[in-house]
Design brief:
Number of helices: 4
Largest sheet: none
Distance between the termini: 78 Å
Shape: elongated
Strand content: under 5%
Order of helices and strands: HHHH
Number of domains: 1
Number of strands: 0
């Protein structure tokens, strides 16, 4: 075999390994993804039944976007460290508290 064929095979092998590793990194935060989905559902449900005003829902959704951005940055290098996981958990705890507070405050959407 020529050196060119061997180097092409090596390149192919490396790219397959890289793609596999990158896809593993994308799934490295299943708990964060599940909480994110549940929090978005809580915001939607609060908006639908009048517990959240449009302004409150907008602010809560912006907080969810920030968490998602933080998660993407944590996954960017292929490894989500313990510190990054703690930060994501802390942000999601704060968002969960904010959702509960906004849903149970005195402000409501005018529901007919």
């Amino acid at each position: 075999m020529s050196k060119k064929v061997i180097s092409m095979k090596n390149l192919l092998l490396i790219s397959i390994l890289f793609v596999g590793y990158a896809s593993y990194a994308q799934d490295a935060t299943p708990k964060v993804d599940a909480r994110e989905k549940e929090q978005r559902a809580r915001i939607h449900q609060g908006r639908a039944n009048g517990e959240l005003t449009q302004n409150e829902a907008s602010k809560l959704n912006a907080q969810q976007r920030h968490i998602h951005k933080t998660e993407r940055r944590a996954k960017a290098d292929g490894t989500v460290t313990r510190t990054e996981r703690k930060k994501l958990n802390r942000e999601q705890n704060r968002a969960s508290r904010n959702i509960r507070r906004q849903k149970h405050d005195a402000q409501t959407k005018n529901v007919q």
